[in-house]
Structures are given as C-alpha cells and as structure tokens.
Amino acid sequence: MFKSLPFIGYWQKTTFTLWLIAALCFYFADTEIISLDPWSELRLMAEGFLRPDFFATEYLLEALWQTVSFALLGVVFGLLWGAPLALIYSNRFVAMLCAITRSIHEIFWALLFLQIFGLSPVTGILAIGLPYGATFARVFHDILLQSPKTTVQTLPYGTDKVSRYFYGRISHVLVPIMAYIRYRFECALRSSAVLGFIGMPTLGFYLETAFRQGHYHEGAALLILFIALIGTISLWCRPRLIAVYVVAALFTLPSIPPVDGALLWRFITQDVLPPALQNLTTWSQIDLGVMQSLSNWSQNLLVEQAFPGMIVTLLLALVSLAMAHGVAVVGAGLASNLLTGKLVSSGIHLCLLVLRSVPEYIFAFLFMMLLGPSMLPAMLALALHNGALIAYLTVRQSDTTQVSPHYNGRIDGYCYDVLPQIYPNLMGLLFYRFEVILRETAIFGILGIASLGFYIDSGFSEIRYSSALFLMGCTALLNIVVDIISRRLLIANTGTQISCARESGLSSVN
Amino acid sequence: MLKFENLTLKYEDKLAIRQLSLSIKAGEKLAIIGTSGAGKSTLLSHLYQCLKSEAAYSSQKQGLVEGLSTYHNVFMGALARHHWSYNLFNLVSPFKQPLAEVTQLCQELELDFPVSKKLSELSGGQRQRVALARALYQSKDIFIGDEPFSALDPLMSRRLLDMVFERHNTVIMVLHDKSLALEHFDRIIGLKQGQLHLDARQDELTSEMVDDFYCDIPLTAASHVLAVSDV
User: Three-state DSSP class for A391?
Assistant: First the structure.
C-alpha cells in the first residue's frame, strides 16, 4: 500500500502503522468517562495542590524513611544475588530463570509474599529485590560483554586471575554500572512508594488513604514530597553516605513478625496447588480423573480469565504506546531550546521531570478518582509517564545536534533539521519502553481494570492461590514472548540492540 | 636471546609476516621501521609473546581504563608483583608506597597534574604517556614498544626515549620517526609486506638508505598487485 509513495520513509510507515493499530485498539477499549462531576473533583484537587498541607499526615517522616529504606534494602538484596549471576548469565538456565523472575511485576511478587510473610518488611524487600536482581544480572552481563578486551591483553605477564578480572574487566564497566544502579534506585523508590497501595507502610499507603478520603491538601503534600525526594536524589544519596543509610535502614526496620512454619508448609504443599491436586497424599493417586479435572481447571482459567485478561492488557498497552509516542514527540519539541527558546524549554523540562518522577500507578489512581473506572485513566497515566521519560532522553540528544546555518528556529525548521535526526532514537526508546508499559499495564488490574492483574488480585483476595499463580505464569509468559518478538523486530529493522542499560543515561542528569 | 627462522604470522586471517628470519641479542637497542600494514605490530606482539616473562609491552592499543584514575592505570603495571588481595585493596584506597612511586614516575614523564585525575579527562598525548608509565612501572629487563611516542612532539620523544633506555637493558621499538631511529638505536630493521628488507647496524646506515627503503616497491609485490588488478 506504500509502494506508490516514494517519499514515505521507513519511520513514517512505522509511525503510521503504530497509530493505525492503536486507533483500532482504542475502538475496542472501554474508555467511557463514568464520573458524576469530574470538574468539581478536579477543582478540589487543584485547590489541594495550590495549598498543600504538609502537617496533616501523622508519621510523615516515618513513611518517607520507610519508602527510602525499602528501596535501598531491595536494591542491596537485588545486587547481592543479581550481580554474581551476571557472571554466569550466559548459561541458558540462569538466563531463563532471570527472565521469568523479571517478567513478574514487583506488586505481584508483593501480593504473593503477603500471603506468606504478611505485612512484614521481608515482603517489601523481597518484592523489590527479586525482579531487580534478575534485571541487574542481565544488564550487568550486557555491560560486561561490551567492555573492551584490550586491557586484559596488555596486563603484565603473571598477573593473577582476580587482579586480572578486577583491573582488566570490572574497572572498565564500573562507571556505567554505578550509573545503572543509581537509575535503578530511583525506580526502586517508585516501586517502594507503590507498594503502599497494597498495604506496606510506605508513602503510597498514606497517599491512597488521603486521596480516597478526599483529603486533597494532605495528598498533594505527600505527592510533592515524593517528587522532591526523587528530584533531589543526587543531593542526599552521596556514595559515602550509602553505607550509613543501609545500616540505618536495617536498624529501623519495623519488627518482623514470626513466620508460622506450619502455615508456610501448608501454603507451599496445599494452597498453591490446583484444587484437583490438593487432597492427594501420594503420587500414585494421580489418575485419569485427576488429570481430567486438572485440564478442565486450567482450560476454564485460560478461557475465562487468562485470555480476556491478556487481550485487555495488550489493547491497553498498545493504545498507551501510541499515546506515549504523541506525548514524547510534542514534549521533545516543546522542551527543545532550538524550538521554543530558553525560558519555555526549561519550564517544560521541569514538567517532564515531574511527570517522569511520579509512578504510573499513582497517576492512574488520580485519574481514576477524576474520570471513573475505565481504561482511559490507565492509558493517560502510562502515556504521560513514559512519554515524558522518552521526551526527556530525546531532548538531551536534540540539544547537542548540529543544525544547518540557515536554521530558522520555527516549527518547519525544527521538522526539517532536528526531528529527522532524533526520530530514530526516539522510536528505539519507545519500542524498548513497550516491554515496561506491558508490565505496568498488568498491575493496573489492582485498580479495577480487567487486565491480567485484576484476575490475579481477585485470585489472591478470594484465597484461590493456585489460580493466582497460574495467571502470574501467564503474565510472565506474555511479557517474555512480547520481549522476544520486539527484540527480534528491533534488531531486524534497525540493526541495533537496544539494551536496558540505555535508560541509565537518565541517572547522570539529576 | 631470541632467534627464529622462516617465521610466518597471520593477522586477522591475512598473511602479515612471511618467512622472516631474525635474531636479537640481549642488550640490543633495536628499531623497527616500515610503512603501514608492513606487519610491524604483528611481529612486535609475537616478540612479546616469546619474551613476555621478562618484557614490558607498550601496545598501540593502550588498554587504558577510562573510569580509573591515572594512578590506578599506571599501577596496573605492577599487578603481577603483588598478591590479589593487595591489588583489590589498592583499587579502593591506594597504598602509600606505590602512590609515591607512581607520582614520581609521572612527574618524570612530565605529567604535571594530580595522579588522582580520571583518565577520561586526559588528552591524547597525556594518555600515551600514561600507557608508557604503565610499561615503565613494570620494571622489566626488556622494553617492547609499538610507536610509544606517536602523539608527542619530537623533543619530548627524545627525552622519554632516554628514560626508556636508562631503565631497560634491551629495547625493541616500532618507530615512525626515522630520524629518532637513526640517531638513537644500535640496529634498525625495515619491514615491507611482511618481509625483512633492511637490517643494518647504526654505523653502517645512512639516511639515504632509509629513504631508498621507503621509496622502492619490490618487483615481486608490484607484479602481484598488477596481476590482481588485471583479474
């Protein structure tokens, strides 16, 4: 269909196709605004942000500190088990294990551990540490692969293995790895705050309470504090202070309630098993009837929950991807001082910082208060957060691009001179983000959108652990399949490997 | 010290050295000259492989580490002298003695900035001297250098060459500055398309001989080129 249009290039086709698919998805998605009076609610919220009340929350400092300490301990735990695995990541089994661990969202891990450990700090730390460790293993492995080998070749004869490895390999990758850990710590702060929505004593807990009760002055204050916390990471998170923070975090952890061994055993051996297998005592009891009911059980779950959940998840993710594209292109244009001048561009820069600091989940929650429960709040939240992030990274590139001497500083000049230079990178980032968007989409189920997370959440709350676990497996599988497909497409079409490490470019900014 | 007959070497699947015979005596100061692609670096890295237990090698790929300080980059020359735990500790917090030694060495090499400076902040000439410092810090008997002064001015090259001579018994060096080679080295060999085309002691050699070496293309190679282009 494009053959007769010689001036429509590869990226135009890709963009057009993306929007076509998104428009189709939007048609099938549920985007009705169900709210009695969104405007008055919006007015109340705006008033809250104009006059935030920083003293309304009891335990405010404690909540802030718990948010930081869960994030910190989660990252440390992730490093402890993820970093050594990076050295043996080329092993297929290790890579697969990490891929599965990574593809399950922190919130789902938290929901699972909540059943075992209750509202204990262990739940929060494990929920952050497990997927983060798996990501560390993969990213560190990627970074190590790219490190130059010339140093090892020029080391003096007789250098022992350990020195060889540390001076020849690790020293090369120390800077990108530190940058990546910093970036992940920022992500962990967001995850830690969001864990509050399922009951952990972090900022999200107080945020949800405040907004649900209509205490917008209080909620606004919490949100502003959270954004300030993330925006000032470089000020309070000095490398020398980290050890102090870790020790302080360990000592100030809320007390860990004892784990009931019998309950844990029951959970592992009984509760997580499908109903058909629960009352079996020996292997020999597995017969045709058991197999039959097992297959019925999984078939029912697949048809009634997994497939509808997957479809909604994909619809939502695709529409959000296209909307994020729009936000990214417009945001990058407005924030570029080549187009809008210094004053406006720095204002937009600040907006982008705020938008990318707030977790999608909190945005979705706020929009849902305004617009009522449909897919629209989730789409807007995903588009704003991810679009702002991509715009932010793209602007850093566009600020250093060379423009022709007759560049006129208008929108036409921008589209001729700057946009073609930054567009491939923007699209690369966008498609890399798709994996992240998909992961986040699943958890919006907890807010009531019928994505996979919705069925997982109801599985847990109705104490049907086996179906919750089954659906978590489906989510992991969906993420892995999409990841593999998008990687193949990217490599085939752009010839470049987009690695997760690219995002760590973020960290050198704050 | 080292002797080989009919040596043939490959570089990236292409023949780089063809049937070369050479002997090197201990205490010699040997310069290797030749045009690009003559096989000099391939020969040099082979020499290093043969002599590596007693030689320091300053390769064209400097192997410097961007993220580390100048001090650490130079210290890497001493990795083999210490236990790994010493090396690891030094990576976190430098020991006094090597720090003093490296600072001294860097001053001699006219690197007049704090040794704590990150490598990524250095200029091309400074980097080359850091790579040289690392080779010197190995304190070996033999120095093997692959154009170790290519980014430096001629005067500084001479001063640094003297330093290299002072500290090593045998020196084998690829040079592109032929006057430097003629003035300072005992023996000069010229490579052309992987073969030895010049091997003379300094006192037998004149500037004209070197110019001739650079000018004429050997008949065999020229006819080979023609034959290929005919096809």
Answer: helix
